């Protein structure tokens, strides 16, 4: 963003627009926000398409394989148009302001997290020196939005789903946050840029491959916990269709529904991207010297693919299993990793 | 026994006198309350240990005295118990002829009583407790005897009082016994109060002075008189002098061995012993001596008259005891503590004999009434009867029995040192004594009446040997100890051997015989229950106990209770009213204020915040930032 | 008026407005949302004060933890609690008076005191320094805080057990 | 440039708002919110001082306050839930066992 703000006056001058100097940062912010929002929308469309296709192939579903023009690209557009045009229904007994607010909060959380999303050395909105911590913090907004959505709907399934979501997300935030610690200890920084920069020099410098593999275990835990906080299968208890209709967003339709939808796919990208940046070397390539946004996007895409793959192959867990795994498996393991890495770092 | 004369042997002897009773008491009360035979064995073992120690101590003392010119000086063996800046409190033993003599009296009688009680208390469910109390009592009495100073004496004095309370009320389920125990305790307490004040005054004036220093205290005359009289108050209570004597006859509610032990031979003579112990203090004051003398004479006379009209055998001996205690006190008042102690010595044996004999009768007849005992065949109990006769002879003061010699010494002292009026009075008391003692004998001598309650026509069986044995031992002592009259004074104070004073002995004996004849004339034949004296109208006064009980009753009921009611009224309506008024006011104010405590934390916080902000405003206005 | 000033006023407005909205909101769930707004404003103020770490912490702990906890509390205390009962007028007046007095006094004192002039700005990356301080100068307080958290963990678990067993230990 | 006084004023006002909530509201959860606001007001002051004086101690202290607030909220919510189970209400005026 700072680079953008630096080059922006020149660009504007060439275009012949005159803008007061004080407004330049604001304009830069606005441009960045638009880009992120557009990226989020676009990625949602792409991911819906990918998910459909993959599900079709994993589970031999005929529809997604054949429908929608060449490679089924029209299907996503049809989806988008449908969501835009659909009637926006608000239940009669709902708490209307909160009902409206909830989707925005959910999207806002993910959206804010993208501020520190490190696509490449240059291509990031802002390199915050508390980057990863900031992302973890703002992601909690999503939890609040989910609860609000479930509660404001005045629907028992929605409420139950929201409660489940809150319990699950709050409890998985702990292993997720702790899993980052070994990386932070090793990189001596919270800034994502520094963390990625510390992994330059080929595949073997990626943190996930660093012996004695504390960070490798952390990576698995981070990925699993991220999956759980995204409420994706096999952790999709909050929106378990067979039990709760659609969980906390049962009553939502139209654009408001698409916001949750968008937040989920953006979240997938976010978690995958973070995992890539933290453990898989970010924008660094397999061989030393290689670098660029492409590497980052490739790694992220691979992780997203794994997520989709898991979703369509694994059955759903029970809620007690989810809580058990979170508190009694992941948390102790990640604590052991943190301790081990701290001992490694202690010279 | 040579080693007994060394210091180690001596300390063993002293501890052997003092501790066994307390150990026995502790063991019995803690462990053996359910195991009566073991309790008895332990108690008697302790008693015999003490008796043996005492006799050895006496032997040692005699051995030392034999090689010594005059009387042996008193020896004290003390430990410092408590030291302050102003006074050191010593705890220990005193050894002098007086204490050794007293030890013999106490331990011999205690031992015999304990043996006798095997028979008397046979089958009583509380025997273990009884023996525990007996041990504690004897131990306390021993402690009192060996006390080297007034403070230790006072401690054991109170312990003795406590034991007498426990033993008189031993059959606490009998209301009379409980009342008698209470009465004894309260009555002696009046006297003890005086003793305590005297003790405090002495402590204040001279610290914890030993008895051996009493002669050289150098107290001002007034203070000496005062302290003496206060000590004498304690004696009046404990030795049951007129007018506090009323507890002693009632105390006969206790078991008879207790009567013998406590109220004949040991406890009541504690007062007399204390008089002798503190003799130097009394001798310094004419007034005190006169008071002592008059109290003694009045007591002797009053008690003797009352003894004449009793039907209860134990009451007779009880009043007789009071009377004889009066003798001892008056002897002291007449200036002869030697005669007093001698009488104590002889009286202990024959009065114990009489009490134990009475117990034997009662045990047999199941009644205290003289005539009832006679009807149940009292004279068939030969040993008991004849030992009682010996005791009565001694009591009446006929030669050659011990009472004759000790009374002779007293009469001599009174005749020599006092106004003739006292002498005549004491003589008259001697006449009465002979009368009432033989009144008992003659009544008991009556033939047994055939009746449905008596199985055999030829008189009752005598008591078992454990009861008659002590009787015989005591009878022997009664006959013999009088012979010591000549040596007694020498033993006690180093005075030259005395002789009988015939000018006193002959009229006394004559009067005693007159009393016996009168008693025989009244009760010797026929079934009459009233003698010559009984028919005198004036005898109504002793029969009503000189109206003392009525007086005490009136005092307690009318005056004390009336005053109490007045106090209670004032207390309830004025003092309590004021207090309650204050309390009610406070409570009312509290209830009003407590309405502020609504339980609403928010209100509290509100007030708090308001006050804080006002204070903050004050800070803002006053403090320069 | 600089952009910083504008941001300050907006964030202060969010903070105080959120607080006042809690005061006047009738529905508790909305009050929680207002609380969220207020806390966000505080986080923004932290950023203005060069305390980014604290701002993130504020969001993480308060929004991710405490407000969610409050929502849970609301849900567990029954539907009748969503709407506040009407408070008495006297209480309102009393609370208003003492709060107003407090506010006035505090503001007066803030105004009157000569505060030290802001001298040196903080260095860019304060996070590492905070971490160092936590584990050196303030390590005792740090340990106390960890013990406190442990106690709270155990204590709340006990409470939950009490609640499950119907209030009987 | 925003002065220290302005931050402190915001802190004071936020404190007052929290106080008002604590004094006025009857619902225990509302009161808890008020308390959180008061703690935040204190934190604003700490951080403002920290910024003005150029030290980090104020921020460290604020961190401890946040920790304490989290612990306090957890316990308070647990207590409120228990209160609800025992009294059937979370109205603090109903919980008047402290009544004198």
Structural account:
The complex is a heterotetramer of chains A (347), B (625), C (169) and D (100). By secondary structure, chain A is mostly helical. Chain A has helices at residues 2-15, 23-59, 62-66, 73-85, 96-113, 131-152, 156-187, 192-197, 214-229, 241-244, 254-279, 293-313, 319-345. Chain A is built from 13 helices and no strands. In chain A, α4 crosses α11 and α7 runs antiparallel to α9. Helix content of chain B is 72%, strand content 3%. Chain B has helices spanning 7-31, 36-66, 97-120, 127-145, 150-168, 175-206, 221-238, 247-250, 256-265, 267-277, 279-283, 286-307, 313-333, 337-365, 370-375, 382-396, 402-417, 420-445, 465-480, 485-493, 502-523, 540-543, 548-594, 601-622, and strands at residues 75-83, 88-95. In chain B, β1 (75-83) and β2 form a beta hairpin. In chain B, α12 (286-307) runs antiparallel to α13, α13 (313-333) runs antiparallel to α14 and α17 packs across α21. Chain C has 169 residues and is mostly helical. The radius of gyration of chain C is 21 Å and the shape is globular. At the C-D interface, α1, α2, α3, α4 and α5 of C face α1, α2 and α3 of D.
The best one-word shape of chain C is globular
Largest sheet of chain C: none
Count of helical stretches of chain B: 24
Domain tally of chain C = 2
Q: Determine the strand fraction of chain C and express it as a percent band.
A: under 5%
First CA to last CA of chain B: what distance? 99 Å
CATH fold name of the largest domain in chain C:
Four Helix Bundle (Hemerythrin (Met), subunit A)
Percent helix of chain B, as a range, is over 70%
Task: Give the rounded overall mean pLDDT of chain B.
Answer: 79
List the helices and strands and how they pair.
The complex is a heterotetramer of chains A (347), B (625), C (169) and D (100).
Chain A: H1 2-15, H2 23-59, H3 62-66, H4 73-85, H5 96-113, H6 131-152, H7 156-187, H8 192-197, H9 214-229, H10 241-244, H11 254-279, H12 293-313, H13 319-345
Helix pairs in contact in A: 1-2, 2-4, 2-11, 2-12, 4-11, 5-6, 5-11, 6-7, 7-9, 7-13, 9-11, 9-13, 11-12
Chain C: H1 3-24, H2 28-48, H3 52-76, H4 89-112, H5 127-135, H6 139-164
Helix pairs in contact in C: 1-2, 2-3
Chain D: H1 4-24, H2 28-53, H3 57-87
Helix pairs in contact in D: 1-2, 2-3
